[in-house]
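User: quick one, sequence for these tokens?
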């Protein structure tokens, strides 16, 4: 996969940022007693999605990038669970909650596609690299035998 110039150009990051902003707006209406509980948890999880995408982009390999995209997916699932709890507790309106769930599902689909694209290109690179390493190992072993 050819990387864009910046993580900001990734649709996954853009959508995750939009989701985080919506989560911040939605959590403003939650009860004050939840300020250091559910509100904080939902916000941290939502911010973590975009942050993990950006951090993974900044890593040196597609394998590391994929790892952080997996972390972003995990944070997304965490956020969805917390939104569902807020809906069940009556802290947020069902319609607003459903909009967040729909938006987060879209982010999840985009993340899955990005992970799959990295997996397919990374798998080919790894296979090629493993073949080259195996050939180099065989040559090294043969050269060692010749010098004995």
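Assistant:
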């Amino acid at each position: 996969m050819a990387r864009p110039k910046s993580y900001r150009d990734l649709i996954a990051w853009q959508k995750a940022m939009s989701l985080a902003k919506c989560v911040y707006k939605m959590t403003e209406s939650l009860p004050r007693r939840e300020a250091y509980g559910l509100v904080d948890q939902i916000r941290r999880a939502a911010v973590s999605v975009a942050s993990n995408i950006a951090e993974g982009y900044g890593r040196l390999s597609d394998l590391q990038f994929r790892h952080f995209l997996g972390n972003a997916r995990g944070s997304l699932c965490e956020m969805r669970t917390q939104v569902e709890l807020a809906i069940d507790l009556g802290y947020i309106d069902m319609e607003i909650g459903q909009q967040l769930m729909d938006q987060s599902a879209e982010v999840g689909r985009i993340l899955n596609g990005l992970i799959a694209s990295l997996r397919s290109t990374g798998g080919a690179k790894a296979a090629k690299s493993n073949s080259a390493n195996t050939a180099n190992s065989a040559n090294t072993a043969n050269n060692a035998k010749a010098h004995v």
